[in-house]
Each structure stands twice: as C-alpha cells, then as structure tokens.
Give the backbone structure.
Amino acid sequence: MPSLDDVRTTLEAARHGYLSTASADAEPHLQPVVFQVVEDSIYIAIDEKPKTTLRLRRLTNIESNPRFALLVDRYDDDWNQLWWILLRGPADVLWPSEWDQHEASQAIAALRAKYRQYETMGLEERPLLKLMPDRVTRWSASGNY
C-alpha cells in the first residue's frame, strides 16, 4: 500500500481536493478544499471567505466522528492523463486557544506559501483542520502521478 511519502510531490503540487466527513449519525458531507502537506499531516485552513459561523459542518463532523477521506484528482479529456489519490484516516480540529504554536506556525506558513490568497488573511485566529492519513490509495491511467 502506498504511503503519504509516495504521493507527497503530487499532493504538494495539487491545487485542491474534496474533503469528505460524516456526522456522528453517519450523515455524509463533501466539501471542496485547498490544503498543504506538512511533515506527516495535511492541513486545511478555515479562511476568511464569507461564512455565517465558524462552527462549520466539517469541523463539527470531525469533532464527533474524526474519520475523513480526502480525494485529490486530475481529470482530462485525454483519459491517459487521469489520476486520483484517496487519503483516509483520523482528523483533528485545532482551535487557536489549543494550538502547539510551532505546529500552527509551520502549517500556516506552508499554506500561505502555496496559496497567495492566504497572505493577508488572519489565519492565526481561525481553526485549522489536521488530517493524519493512515491509508493511501492511488490510481493512474499512465502509472504517473
């Protein structure tokens, strides 16, 4: 079975993915997200785009049912170019009041380096999602990722 290290370069270059969570009563929720790999985890910021609350479904789902799936893929009309990576495992919601400052600073810096939109956002005052994949599945039409 592949590991996070086997797909790290592809994930670092990928611009977005689809995060799947489920509530305590198994109600599924799918959300497009941007992310960054830092060491053995994947971080997703809760950014400043308009939201009615910070108690977002993806956060409350993870707090009650910490398993996630993250799908990152490439579609092309030339089907020889198709690939996907599916990561699964436990996740955690990191609230600013509970942060390990080194971990949070490293994650936020990595997210800002990848997405210029984050450069002016106050990510330090918002929660982060930390995904800790323990299962990696991948597929490619060409064998390249």
About this structure: Helices lie at 4-13, 57-64, 101-114. DSSP finds three helices and eight strands in the chain. The beta strands are 17-22, 28-33, 36-38, 41-45, 67-74, 83-94, 128-131, 135-140. The longest strand covers residues 83-94.
